[in-house]
Design brief:
With 85 residues, this protein is an all-alpha fold. It has a single domain, classed as ACP-like (Non-ribosomal Peptide Synthetase Peptidyl Carrier Protein, Chain A), CATH 1.10.1200. The protein has four helices and no strands. The longest helix has 15 residues. The chain is globular.
């Protein structure tokens, strides 16, 4: 699970072009949107594409994304349970 967290953090930084941020800067339980990492709705779309391309997870219901993308911990839990790649 720790390897998946590190991989996911690196992918988020790369896909969202988060300059000056390292995987160590992103706390596992920190909010990704709002006051936490400060991501926005465009970033959410990029995360949906990332989940599809990298893990074979298609999010048909955007409301589910709100729960899945709360933190690295919630994303890793969802990926571990639903990945097809």
């Amino acid at each position: 699970m720790t390897a998946l967290k590190e991989e996911l953090k690196r992918q988020i930084i790369e896909v969202l072009h988060l300059e000056d941020i390292t995987p160590a800067d992103i706390q596992d339980e920190e909010a990704l949107f709002g006051e936490g990492l400060g991501l926005d709705s465009i970033d959410a779309l990029e995360l949906i594409v990332l989940m599809d391309k990298t893990y074979g997870i298609k999010l048909a219901d955007p409301k589910k994304g709100r729960d899945i993308f709360q933190s690295i911990d919630t994303m890793v839990a969802y990926i571990s349970e639903h990945r097809t790649k």
